[in-house]
Amino acid sequence: MTFLRVCRWLEQALTRIELGAALLAFTAMLALSVADIVGRNLFHATLPGGDLVLRQLVLWVALPGAALAVAAQRHLHLDPANLAAHAGWQKLTAIPFNLAAAGVCALLTHAAWAYWQDEWKYQAADAVWLAWLGLILPTAFGLLALHFLLRAVLAGSVKAA
Fold first, then answer.
1. The model's pTM
2. How far apart are CA 28 and CA 93, in angstroms?
3. I need a labelling partner for 145 at 20 to 30 A (CA). Which of 34, 46, 113, 122 fits?
4. Residue 79 DSSP code
């Protein structure tokens, strides 16, 4: 029983952090967009690197949002049990599909980490900050893997109860 409480607590803590990160990134994205529009219209200039930061901030909003969707069990369901919408099948397939999704996300975490390390290695000295923003990819895929694992554990507890 204590292990399940820890899993629930961990998922709640992660969702708070992810929601905060997504809200902060969205606020920064909005402020940067407004500053860029005002700069272009009033001063005929844009913020240096503003477009690159905006592209990264889109990931900082979308990927924590994906983790929040998994935690809330509102992510896209493509497995046959959900297409058939039969509750009994959904209960039977919840654990294996969550474990499979966690495995895929773990593989994506590994690939994103390798990609980030390569990007870090060849990043220009004046754009190192951009590489730091790119850490969202391995971090988010790792969080998704963790959320899917937690969903599998919690689905198993519901099944056993």
1. 0.84
2. 40
3. 122
4. S
